């Protein structure tokens, strides 16, 4: 059946093609990928006799006396003269880092990828000791001492076990191959253009009795310069690729390695009847009008893969910055084999032991950092278009939103604001008064986001370019000249952010006040935040719309070595710049299109230039989930689709998707019709307005969820397997998801003409309430599908029994205007009459939260006699080290200045769902009786379905910053 | 269990909110409590619920219609009224009440908690009145000009009416003339019809007709091809100047290079895109035109201008003349017939008509002998009739046009019921935006003219006023927008179009141009034609 469907897919492809697939390589068009796959197929053909040529020289083993670290020499039987160094270390939290590099080679392999990805040098465990055996070295760790790492000597193999069960195996299949540096022999013909010949013919045939051919093959396939369409990659360093097999013998599902437009649970690319023919590719690229179901690389790369089974979750982070292809196979439904083929760089793999999804997130966050806590306003709605054409246009768009009383926080300007696409320089013909315009937006407590792209127009009258030239910080060609490429601004140059000289200079550009002798952005204010686009980098006349791989960066590294990291540095520096322009610093908002492991520390991302189609709407959810698993939680897709003119029904559904994305922005291409919500006809306009207001009412939930992401690295939107790890039926579900730990389960509709839909309630004995109608549904221990109404105005949205949701129900023009508004608490009782929820608040824009200027409450409902007791507790005091990102709050004052500033903010309403009987009284402890209203209905306990009972407590007049108790008798 | 601290502040945030805070004067009477026993109660405005009087403006929404919280913003989708004493009262949406921002519409600051927003009604009211006065002054000046437009329309009315009357007279006399000439022509024709029919069978004549049809078709095809070539050329020009050397797209690059070679243009990436083509290129393009023609062949100019003439020839006359050439050679060139050579050209048609009439009259009287050739006579009579008939048609067209002008003059859908827009019919307004000059010829066509060379594009022809939903024909709002549609098509977008948004001003001028969507332009401008006299009441502000 699968074979049939993939056949159908192939047939359907040619008509569905929108991307210029011929602009981007397949594995067979990249010589190192070809070599890597050929290695795998030779191993497959000789599976019984196959043995990795790499082994550890036991005599060279050096174990640090006080730390869980050892080094050893590794040699390859193919090249006895070539030396490799192995470095294995176990971090404090059990993460195992395995590094392998060529030693004393002809050249140096790129070994700095991890340094850009890691937030800090990880701490190596002091408690673990390596034990050396005859054939291997091993260490045991974990709370129960049930985790074991074994490094076998011959062949080299690294295994992580838990409870004696294999979790992760490196080089178990013998596909490890680090191509050493070599000298190009003049006699060897090597310049055969590949496209002229079939892959097999393009190889330089070596002598027939080459003793290495069983492993490396009979040819030097594309070792030296390589042709691609009209471009030649000079490859002066020759072959240096890296192949590594990573096996999860007991995990049937793998996730992650964004960015691909594909299902969350990654489908096979190799093995028996694979779903895709090409490996998943990681090579940041401006994939114009990309396909909605493909392994093609997109704008960003995070080489992190999760593996999950009902009783274990692990992950591997492969810190490599060069182009990487990943083959996935499931030899059995319960196991996974992968092969990672990279163009260059050292082997630097972090084995993340889990054992739960949450533990994996925390361990990964300790490595590359957690999601930066966003400015609170950036969780509101963002209105973008290429382009709002002049400053009056911006004012009128704002006026229209206000006229219709539709909330919005941010107006965006795409590239046309800039004179000749010289970013920072306003086109004064259309934007004669940028500061007045920004201030008119600020006057309603809103912000603007303006685009700054990395390509600098090469004209000396453009101060940013000229200063880059003067500072000598531009990327160079292989010959050492300034690299020139074409982008929006025409002939352009690119800043090399790997060069530390560029850092302070770039940060200085964003100052909003004049500095003598320097360009600063005086035509901006602190309410202007930044959008970084085209940072893959996108270069219109470059190979694969990007930069030639033999371009040279700081330190002499080739672009190929750092390509996937390049985009992150740009948004990293921009983010630092925006933070540093104010004193004291404020949280920056920087949206980036390109990203790498660690980008989550600097802002938000979106899924790039999607199409206004149902397929893209649906895959956008999966992409955001995959991104969330990979640490980059602040993510979203363009609402409405970048290209095309979505019909009103599609646009409404897309707003429903957007309202449940961490990052919520509508955007549109310059060729599309305008589609701001106020332009819709009824009933669509009112539906969208209601969706936007729903998003705004839930901002406290989103912000609270972001707190957790920023501290622990747990995603903001979570797929089923993360929330219910044991429920196998949920492992592949990626069209419904959870909002943080709030207990909200949502399934946005992404199909046309839908009036009802099926929602999966996970394997547990629990009650789920429809958020709007309070209809109570019962899940089952084996999981259960329910059919729910899903007409155009309805988003299937459920509250898991046992949750308390804080919302702000008063519609406002923008989110900062809600700061003094009272809260409503929705208490969704579980079967035993309990519930809990959280609320986190701070000033939303500064870093004062790191000084304890916060309010973090836990709300609880519990049985008390025949009634229930609702209470509010201070979570900061309960978990001072867990409250905010980056610091442990040593001292915390519950009446801090921030708490004082909102002491008057109260809970105006409590809605309790699932109470058994009408209460006789509702009383604030130590206070008076409170008015209430009770609508009888189904109780949380029991088995009945139907509309639940609703108790509405009117204005208990309790503050949101203090402890209190409400007794419902 | 963590010990908890009770910090029960009195948190009824707006304990002191007046019960009628935010209530407009018209509803004040509804905000009074009624007694239910000892309790004071109140009924929601829609009657759906009875609540304690204390629940009114207590910052908690009780009523389904939201009427119990006129002053706190607790009920969404309601309105808040600020009295703005010293200025004009105003409504704001409940979403703006107590949101921390001082609402400009509420100059008394009543939308926020007391003490947050200063009462600025005095100064704002003052500024408002100054602004109103300035606006009134502008309107007054503008309305004077507008009156002159109306006076113009009145004059136009008289002029057109006069024109209509004289045209009608002219038509009557022309009709008589046509009828008379038709008689003569019919008479002549009946005499010669048989002979003519026979002559028409001549292979030469038949072949001529076939040539005519072929040539006509060819001309038609040629025109189509020229238009096609022009629009393709335009497309390619835009492609050449507008393409992104994007994605190294060989197909696009080939197209651009091919076009440049074909049109003799330099490669766009070799010169600055904005530069005008250098003189060198012009001489290069000039080469094409020096293509040598065989002797006697028509030049393109001749083809363009003289082909129509050739095709318009009266073949029957030619046939008859041909007879003359082949048959008799003698020709009696009486002064009367040749007089036409001395008549000034403008008078020629009248003269010929007169001559024909005179000749036939003289013939009737026997003073002049009828021409020898019946055929020639027949053709001449027919020509006279045709010419007269044509003139009649032209005059009738003129009349139709004049009548249309008259009917549109005071038509609300055209020049307004006072005819105030007539003055601007065909007035062309321009705005230079740097790259382009935009021109709108009112009631005619809007154009985009590149300032640095290139083709002018039509942005559309006048189609209608603001016919949006709910806009009353003839209202000021109706005349605030003109729509120009069906302009030159964008090669990758729609046909260009313009919405011209006008407001009262003392001058006819364009102010801003914006391409809000691809090829759809919004142009703003002013005109005195929209300046209603200030005494005409404006919409009262309370209706906000």
From TrEMBL, chain A:
Keyword tags: Endoplasmic reticulum, Glycoprotein, Glycosidase, Hydrolase, Signal
Span of domain Glycoside hydrolase family 31 TIM barrel: 372-704
Record's subcellular location: Endoplasmic reticulum
InterPro entries assigned: DUF5110, Gal_mutarotase_sf_dom, GH, Glyco_hydro_31_C, Glyco_hydro_31_N_dom, Glyco_hydro_31_TIM, Glyco_hydro_b
Official protein name in the record: Glucosidase II subunit alpha
Domain of life: Eukaryota
A Pfam family assignment: Glyco_hydro_31_3rd
Domain Glycosyl hydrolase family 31 C-terminal stretches: 713-805
Pathway(s) per entry: Glycan metabolism; N-glycan metabolism
Similarity remark: Belongs to the glycosyl hydrolase 31 family.
Signal sequence segment: 1-18
Residues covered by the DUF5110 domain: 823-871
Domain (Glycoside hydrolase family 31 N-terminal): residue spans on this chain: 86-327
Primary residence: endoplasmic reticulum
From TrEMBL, chain B:
InterPro entries, per the entry: Gtb1-like (IPR039794), Man6P_isomerase_rcpt-bd_dom_sf (IPR009011), MRH_dom (IPR044865), PRKCSH (IPR036607), PRKCSH_N (IPR028146)
Biased composition (Acidic residues): 277-294
Ranges in a coiled coil: 150-184
Gene3D superfamilies documented for this protein: Mannose-6-phosphate receptor binding domain
Extent of the signal sequence: 1-22
SUPFAM superfamilies associated with the record: Mannose 6-phosphate receptor domain
Pfam families in the record: PRKCSH-like (PF12999), PRKCSH_1 (PF13015)
Annotated MRH domain residues: 426-533
Chain segments carrying region Disordered: 268-297
Keywords from the named record: Coiled coil, Disulfide bond, Endoplasmic reticulum, Signal
Protein name: Glucosidase 2 subunit beta
């Amino acid at each position: 059946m699968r074979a049939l469907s993939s056949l159908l897919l192939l047939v359907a492809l040619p008509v569905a093609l929108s991307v210029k697939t011929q602009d981007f390589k397949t594995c067979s068009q990249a010589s190192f990928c070809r070599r890597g796959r050929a290695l795998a197929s030779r191993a497959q053909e000789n599976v019984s006799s196959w043995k990795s040529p790499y082994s550890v020289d036991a005599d060279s083993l050096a174990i640090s006396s006080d730390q869980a670290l050892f080094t050893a020499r590794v040699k390859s039987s193919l090249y006895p003269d070539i030396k490799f160094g192995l470095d294995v270390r176990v971090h404090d939290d059990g993460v195992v880092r395995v590094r392998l590099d060529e030693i004393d080679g002809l050249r140096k392999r790129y070994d700095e990828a991890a340094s850009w990805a890691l937030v800090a040098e990880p701490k190596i465990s002091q408690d673990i000791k390596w034990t050396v055996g005859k054939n291997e070295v091993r260490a045991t760790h974990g709370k129960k001492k049930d985790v074991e790492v074994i490094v076998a000597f011959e062949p080299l193999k690294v295994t992580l076990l838990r409870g004696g069960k294999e979790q992760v195996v490196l080089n178990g299949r013998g596909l490890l191959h680090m191509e050493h540096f070599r000298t190009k022999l003049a006699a060897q013909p090597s310049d055969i253009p590949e496209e002229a010949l079939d892959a097999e013919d393009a190889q330089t045939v070596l002598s027939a009795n080459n003793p290495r051919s069983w492993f490396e093959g009979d040819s030097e396939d594309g070792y030296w310069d390589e042709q691609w369409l009209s471009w030649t990659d000079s490859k002066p360093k020759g072959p240096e690729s890296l192949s590594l097999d990573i096996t999860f013998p007991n995990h049937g599902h793998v996730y992650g390695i964004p960015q691909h437009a594909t299902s969350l649970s990654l489908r096979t690319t190799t093995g028996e009847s694979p779903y895709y023919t090409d490996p998943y590719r990681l090579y940041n690229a401006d994939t114009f009008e990309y396909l909605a179901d493909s392994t093609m690389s997109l704008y960003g790369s995070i080489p992190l893969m999760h593996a999950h089974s009902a009783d274990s979750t692990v992950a591997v982070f492969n810190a490599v910055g060069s182009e990487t292809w990943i083959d996935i196979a499931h030899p059995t439904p319960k196991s996974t084999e992968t092969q990672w083929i990279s163009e260059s760089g050292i082997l630097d793999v972090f084995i993340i032991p889990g054992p739960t999804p949450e533990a994996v997130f925390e361990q990964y966050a300790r490595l590359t950092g957690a999601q930066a806590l966003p400015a609170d306003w950036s969780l509101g709605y963002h209105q973008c278009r290429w382009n709002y054409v002049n400053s009056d246009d911006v004012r009128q768009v704002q006026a229209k939103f206000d006229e219709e009383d539709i909330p919005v926080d941010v107006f965006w300007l795409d590239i046309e604001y800039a004179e000749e696409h010289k970013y920072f320089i306003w086109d004064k013909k259309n934007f004669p008064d940028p500061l007045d315009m920004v201030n008119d937006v600020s006057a309603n407590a809103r912000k603007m986001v303006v685009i700054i792209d990395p390509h600098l127009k090469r004209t000396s009258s453009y101060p940013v370019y000229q200063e880059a030239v003067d500072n000598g910080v531009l990327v160079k060609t292989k010959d050492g000249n300034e690299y020139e490429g074409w982008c929006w601004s025409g002939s352009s140059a690119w800043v090399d952010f790997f060069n530390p000289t560029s850092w302070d200079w770039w940060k200085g550009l964003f100052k909003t006040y004049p500095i003598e002798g320097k360009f600063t952005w005086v035509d901006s204010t602190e309410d202007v935040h930044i959008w970084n686009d085209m940072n893959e980098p996108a270069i219109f006349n470059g190979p694969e719309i990007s930069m030639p791989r033999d371009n040279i960066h700081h330190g002499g590294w080739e672009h190929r070595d750092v390509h996937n990291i390049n985009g992150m540095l740009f948004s990293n520096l921009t983010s630092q710049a925006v933070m540093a322009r104010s004193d004291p610093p404020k949280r920056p908002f920087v949206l980036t299109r390109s990203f790498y492991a660690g980008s989550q520390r600097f802002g938000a991302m979106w899924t790039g230039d999607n199409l206004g189609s149902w397929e893209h709407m649906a895959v956008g959810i999966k992409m955001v989930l995959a991104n969330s698993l990979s640490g980059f939680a602040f993510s979203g897709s363009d609402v409405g689709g970048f290209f095309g003119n979505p019909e009103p029904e599609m646009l409404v559904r897309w707003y429903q998707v957007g309202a449940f994305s961490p990052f919520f922005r509508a955007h549109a291409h310059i060729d599309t019709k305008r589609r701001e919500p106020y332009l819709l006809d009824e009933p669509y306009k009112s539906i969208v307005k209601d969706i936007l207001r729903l998003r705004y009412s839930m901002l406290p939930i989103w912000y609270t969820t972001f707190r957790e992401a920023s501290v622990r690295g747990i995603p903001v939107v979570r797929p089923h397997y993360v929330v219910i790890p044991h429920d196998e039926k949920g492992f592949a579900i990626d069209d419904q998801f959870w909002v943080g730990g709030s207990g909200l389960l949502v399934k946005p509709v992404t199909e046309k003409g839908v009036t009802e839909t099926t929602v999966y309630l996970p394997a547990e004995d629990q009650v789920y309430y429809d958020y709007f109608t309070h209809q109570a549904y019962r899940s089952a221990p084996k999981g259960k599908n329910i059919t729910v109404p899903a007409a155009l105005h309805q988003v299937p949205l459920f509250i898991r029994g046992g949750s308390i949701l804080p919302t702000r129900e008063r519609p406002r023009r923008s989110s900062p205007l809600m700061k003094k508004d009272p809260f409503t608490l929705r208490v969704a009782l579980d079967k035993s009459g309990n519930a809990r929820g959280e609320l986190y608040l701070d000033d939303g824009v500064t870093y004062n939260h790191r000084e304890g200027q916060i309010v973090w409450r836990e709300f609880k409902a519990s049985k008390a006699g025949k009634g229930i007791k609702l209470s509010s507790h201070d979570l900061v005091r309960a978990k001072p080290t867990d409250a905010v990102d980056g610091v442990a709050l040593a001292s915390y004052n519950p009446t801090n200045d921030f708490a004082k500033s909102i002491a008057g903010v109260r809970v105006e309403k409590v809605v309790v769902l699932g109470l058994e009987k009408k209460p006789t009284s509702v009383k604030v402890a130590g206070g008076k009786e409170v008015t209430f209203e009770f609508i009888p209905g189904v109780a949380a306990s029991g088995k009945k379905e139907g509309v639940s009972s609703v108790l509405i407590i009117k204005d208990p007049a309790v503050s949101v910053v203090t402890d209190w108790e409400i007794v419902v008798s | 269990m963590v010990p908890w601290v009770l910090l029960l502040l009195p948190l009824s945030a707006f304990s002191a909110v007046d019960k009628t805070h935010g209530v407009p004067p018209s509803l004040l009477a509804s905000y009074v409590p009624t007694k239910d026993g000892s309790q004071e109660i109140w009924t929601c405005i829609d009657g759906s619920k009875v609540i304690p009087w204390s629940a009114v403006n207590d910052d908690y929404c009780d009523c389904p219609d939201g009427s119990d919280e006129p002053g706190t913003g607790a009920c969404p989708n309601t309105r808040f009224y600020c009295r703005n004493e010293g200025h004009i009262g105003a409504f704001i949406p409940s979403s703006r009440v107590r949101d921390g921002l001082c609402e400009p519409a509420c100059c008394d600051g009543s939308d926020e908690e007391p003490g947050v927003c200063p009462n600025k009604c005095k100064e704002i009211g003052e500024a408002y009145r100054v602004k109103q006065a300035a606006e009134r002054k502008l309107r007054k000046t503008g309305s004077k000009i507008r009156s002159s437009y109306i006076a113009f329309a009145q004059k136009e009315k008289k002029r057109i009416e006069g024109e209509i009357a004289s045209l009608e007279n002219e038509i009557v006399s022309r009709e008589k003339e046509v009828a008379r000439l038709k008689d003569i022509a019919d008479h002549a024709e009946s005499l010669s019809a048989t002979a003519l029919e026979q002559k028409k069978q001549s292979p030469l004549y038949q072949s001529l007709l076939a040539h005519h049809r072929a040539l006509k078709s060819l001309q038609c095809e040629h025109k189509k091809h020229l238009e096609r070539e022009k629009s393709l050329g335009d497309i390619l020009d835009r492609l050449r100047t507008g393409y992104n050397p994007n994605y190294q797209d060989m197909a696009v690059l080939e197209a651009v290079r091919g076009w440049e070679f074909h049109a003799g243009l330099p490669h766009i990436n070799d010169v600055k895109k904005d530069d005008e083509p250098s003189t060198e290129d012009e001489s290069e393009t000039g080469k094409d035109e020096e293509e040598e023609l065989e002797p006697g062949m028509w030049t393109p100019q001749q083809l363009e201008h003289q082909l129509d003439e050739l095709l318009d020839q009266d073949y029957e006359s030619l046939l008859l003349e041909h007879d003359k050439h082949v048959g008799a050679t003698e020709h009696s060139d009486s002064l009367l017939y040749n007089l036409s050579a001395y008549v000034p050209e403008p008078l020629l048609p009248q003269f010929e008509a007169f001559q024909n009439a005179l000749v036939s009259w003289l013939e009737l009287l026997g003073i002049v002998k009828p021409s020898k050739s019946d055929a020639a006579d027949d053709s001449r009579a027919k020509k006279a009739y045709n010419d007269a008939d044509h003139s009649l048609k032209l005059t009738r067209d003129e009349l139709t046009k004049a009548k249309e002008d008259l009917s549109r003059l005071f038509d609300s859908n055209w020049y307004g019921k006072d005819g105030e827009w007539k003055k601007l019919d065909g007035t062309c307004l321009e705005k230079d935006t740097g790259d382009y000059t935009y021109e709108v010829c009112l009631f005619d066509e809007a154009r985009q003219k590149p300032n640095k060379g290139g083709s002018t594009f039509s942005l559309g022809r006048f189609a209608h006023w603001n016919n949006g939903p709910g806009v009353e024909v003839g209202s000021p709002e109706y005349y605030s927008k003109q729509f120009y549609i069906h302009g030159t098509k964008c090669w990758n977008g729609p046909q260009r179009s313009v919405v011209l948004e006008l407001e009262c001003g003392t001058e006819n001028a364009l102010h801003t141009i914006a391409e809000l969507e691809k090829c759809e332009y919004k142009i703003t401008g002013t005109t005195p034609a929209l300046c209603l006299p200030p005494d005409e009441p404006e919409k009262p502000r309370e209706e906000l």
